[in-house]
Amino acid sequence: MKNSILFLLVSILSTIVTAADTSGTSGKIQFSGVGYDFTYKPISKINNNDKNCSCEISDKEEWFTGTNAPFSEYLAVHIRGPIKLSKFAYYTSHHFSIDDNSSTNWNRSALFDNTKDFVVMDNITFLGHQGKDSNCLGKALTYVGEDAITPQKTNTAPSKYMQDLSNVEYIMYSNISCPKSSVNGGCGVYRSGIPAFYGFGGVTKMFLFEFSMPNDLEGSNHTSYYNAPNIWLSSDSQPRVTSESDYQGYCSCVFQGCGEIQVFSANATKMNSSIATLQGLNGTSSDNFYSMFSNMYGHGSFDRPINTTATGGILFDSEGNIVTFISSDITFDEELTASSINAILANIPELGATKQLKAGVKSAPTSTASRNSANLTPSKVNDWMYIFTIATTLLHYIMW
Ligand SMILES: *[C@@H]1O[C@H](CO)[C@@H](O)[C@H](O)[C@H]1NC(C)=O
Ligand SMILES: *[C@@H]1O[C@H](CO)[C@@H](O)[C@H](O)[C@H]1NC(C)=O
Ligand SMILES: *[C@@H]1O[C@H](CO)[C@@H](O)[C@H](O)[C@H]1NC(C)=O
Ligand SMILES: *[C@@H]1O[C@H](CO)[C@@H](O)[C@H](O)[C@H]1NC(C)=O
Ligand SMILES: *[C@@H]1O[C@H](CO)[C@@H](O)[C@H](O)[C@H]1NC(C)=O
Ligand SMILES: *[C@@H]1O[C@H](CO)[C@@H](O)[C@H](O)[C@H]1NC(C)=O
Ligand SMILES: *[C@@H]1O[C@H](CO)[C@@H](O)[C@H](O)[C@H]1NC(C)=O
Ligand SMILES: *[C@@H]1O[C@H](CO)[C@@H](O)[C@H](O)[C@H]1NC(C)=O
Ligand SMILES: *[C@@H]1O[C@H](CO)[C@@H](O)[C@H](O)[C@H]1NC(C)=O
Ligand SMILES: *[C@@H]1O[C@H](CO)[C@@H](O)[C@H](O)[C@H]1NC(C)=O
């Protein structure tokens, strides 16, 4: 397996092509070939004492496999100011391929709408890292108030008049509660005392946003991430353990290979749409993290919607294609037809060449597993390996 991971790493790095970046107020940025097969060791215990904390990892390997892996897992949606988010929606489809109008339609399964007198919050929980502090894991997740800063006891939407502060981040989850913290539980091992919810699941899924990214005119440029708004997605388990994106002694799952992807990541004027995943795989320092990170940028950038409101999103199709897009034709209807989404995508320019992420190798046990299961339990993997071995042995016996 190590060899195939290495091969994968090398093949990702070697497929980086240089293309002239173009830019626009509308357009799309695409990735193809998404879906990796690899194993990782999940966190089995969090040692969170104030002086020195670390995480222990299970000695049983789990598989990430299939189309869009590791983004086929549950994802949490991060919003970092200055951003005014007026709408957000999450959609799923049984099967959708870009450019194929016979694909299944998209159904809305979560909605946040802050444009009316009464805020709509269907299947959305707003959390932030404003809870109990820890030296090494940072602040724990908690419900946050209208300012997205003050800890709360209940789920509260950010105010539509919220200050456009730099580096204020809230995270959206679904309203489905996690089972209790456990290696084999649906949400893995997480910090005690936090409100824990599933993110947004599915291999084939789409997230839509209506937002603006006004300039922070009041904050101090000493603030970290000053005037650098960002919308990104991460494995839903990452924020439940740590607020740091650093290695943190195995506590950050991105170093084990869980997913993280930038949707609209902005500097003063531009928004990049970039992919950042499999960061280091076996990486043990922030160097691994950032070297992978910077190599996974998509081609092209969008203009930052400073004085305007933009509608855009990210779509993960059933063929391992990811597209981020900005278009004024986007609506947040309960159902969106395959042809309406394809028409939107067809009518906007591609900003730079599609980034090909050909992963290549598919390993034996995973080919027998369900495409839709991002996360196989170790025992299942072992059973399949066993069956696979018997099957290949029989095959050899029959054929030779
Ligand atoms: C911190 O904890 C880890 C693992 O428990 C241990 O290896 C390390 O020596 C500790 N460091 C300090 C400074 O106590
Ligand atoms: C979307 O909704 C339709 C009608 O209610 C249903 O038949 C279909 O299975 C749903 N699709 C998904 C992906 O849930
Ligand atoms: C979750 O959100 C859905 C859609 O708004 C709602 O029907 C359901 O009652 C909510 N469930 C919980 C546990 O709040
Ligand atoms: C809420 O979101 C979760 C996403 O993980 C989804 O599985 C569930 O069906 C959604 N609930 C409703 C009522 O749409
Ligand atoms: C930060 O702001 C101060 C004044 O508020 C200004 O003098 C300085 O040039 C700014 N630094 C940067 C890097 O923009
Ligand atoms: C966008 O990506 C390029 C690399 O392609 C990087 O140099 C630049 O800093 C990024 N800009 C933003 C706004 O993140
Ligand atoms: C912002 O990002 C764009 C795109 O990568 C880049 O061309 C531009 O120089 C960056 N601007 C600043 C002020 O960093
Ligand atoms: C991590 O990968 C490097 C090669 O990139 C290899 O030399 C090293 O042994 C690996 N470490 C572990 C713990 O697998
Ligand atoms: C945004 O609007 C402000 C004042 O309303 C103006 O000063 C600024 O130049 C505008 N910025 C852009 C990028 O259009
Ligand atoms: C899908 O349908 C839309 C809307 O009718 C149309 O604009 C588009 O060309 C169609 N795409 C394909 C590949 O047929």
From TrEMBL:
Gene Ontology CC: one annotated term: fungal-type cell wall
Give GO terms: molecular function aspect only. glucan endo-1,3-beta-D-glucosidase activity
- Stretches assigned to the Cell wall protein YJL171C/Tos1 N-terminal domain: 28-93
Coiled coil, from the record: none
Top EC class, one word: hydrolase
Which GO BP terms, alphabetically?
cell wall organization
The family database entries (InterPro entries) matched by this protein are listed as: YJL171C/Tos1_C, YJL171C/Tos1_N
The EC number(s) this enzyme carries: 3.2.1.39
Q: What family does the database annotate?
A: Belongs to the PGA52 family.
Q: What is this protein called?
A: glucan endo-1,3-beta-D-glucosidase
